[in-house]
Amino acid sequence: MDLQEAIRMLSNPDECERIYAAEDIGLAGQGEGADPLFQRVVEEPSQAVREAIFLALAQIPDNAVIKRAAELLCNDDPGIRNQALELLQSRGGAVVPELRRLLSADDHDLRKFAVDVLSRIETPEIEELLEIALGDSDLNVVITALENVRHCHTQALRQAVLERALCGEHPMLVLAAMETLCRIGDAECYRRIRERFPTLERTPLLYLRPALKLVGRNGENADLLELQNFVTACDPSLQGAVLDALRNLLARVGAAGIPDVWWKDLRARLPETTSLAERYQMLLLLGHFGHCDQAFEMLIACLRSPIKVDRLGAIEALSRTGFEDARPVLCSCLRLERDPEVRQALEDVLRVNGQ
To answer: What does the pLDDT look like over 322-336, one tens digit per residue?
Structure first.
């Protein structure tokens, strides 16, 4: 049918006819069809027809679609709002001027919706617009912006996030900012955060997980002792996060110069550790000390452990240190191993290392 006939059929009592009409308008791809679709969607009772209308609007390249879609963000129906968001996101960088306008709107919900759209498009202006959102007066707008900072190429954006972590007036805002710094923070950010929270022991529980991530990402040798002490003193629910921080820190700074007592304490605690995830992490940590005979021998012994996660952890740890000395034992284990996942891990490590 021609465009005008399709527009008339949008009000047909038959649901299927309305769907066909929307599809035909979309196929026509003319700007003239956008306004009737927007008028119809706000009064359309059928979800199927609404979806057909939004699919049709996505096929119309006219920039007027962007402005009209932005107006639907104020609609009372959450389904319409969500589909309007998806429509805006589908336009990519073309929506930037409209997002810039929305970020200065009086309605804080509109400003948050703008950030939601911004988070799902790729545009050179994204960091500039996120920085604007980080300066918003509404808590939810700022937290949404923080959650959507995926990468950072400008010092201004990093500084804006850091300021929220250091001076945020709400605990959830500080938490979101610290989580963001785990992704984009640098050594200076870490130094400033440690100035605010000098010790892990005195860091509020709410902030400990991101604080531990930051230690793992940016800490130095001097932080290893604090982590070692904290793993025995912290709440049991945090031990996995502490071990993860230790592993990440050791991967960056290396194990050279760390006293033997450090890994011996780790080895002594392994038998009494019941959490499978923590056992795995502890074995990976021991892998950094594979140059020490006793640590190496323990990893070899774990290859024959009845506990599956011990075998997996030992395989991964030995793949990173002392591999050549462990190769004959790994080959022997492969011949005897019956568990498919462990066999796959053995085959992978032997293949990668040239077996």
So the answer is: 678 888 999 999 999
Tens-place pLDDT, residues 201-259: 999 999 999 999 999 999 988 888 888 889 878 888 898 899 899 889 988 888 776 77
Residues 147/116, Cβ–Cβ less than 8 Å: no
- 19 Cβ partners below 8 Å, 6+ apart? 48, 49, 52
Phi, psi of 271 (to 5 degrees): -60, -30
In three-state form (DSSP H/G/I as H, E/B as E, the rest C), the secondary structure along 153-169 is CCHHHHHHHHHHHHHCC
Q: Enter the pTM of the model.
A: 0.78
pLDDT of res. 228 = 82
- Confidence (pLDDT) at 154: 78
Locate 293 and state its tokens: 């005979």
CATH 1.25.40 holds for 269-355: no
Closest among 119, 120, 101, 122 to 110, alpha carbons compared:
101
pLDDT on residue 1? 63
DSSP string, 281-316: HHHHHHHTTTTSHHHHHHHHHHTT-SSHHHHHHHHH
CA distance 290 to 321: 6
Q: Is the dihedral of CA 308, 312, 315, 318 positive or negative?
A: negative
Q: How confident is the model at residue 138, as a pLDDT?
A: 95
Listed as ranges, residues in the chain with pLDDT below 50 are none
CB contact at 8 A, 247 and 280: no
281, 240 Cβ separation under 8 angstroms: yes
CB atoms near residue 300 (< 10 Å): 18
The amino acid present at 108, given as its one-letter code, is: H
Domain limits of the chain? 269-355
Cα–Cα distance measured from residue 84 to residue 160, given in angstroms and rounded to the nearest whole number: 30
d(CA 304, CA 310): 8
Q: What are the tokens at 318?
A: 């030995």
User: How many CB atoms lie under 10 A from the CB of residue 338?
Assistant: 6
**Amino acid in position 275:** S
The type of residue at 233 is A
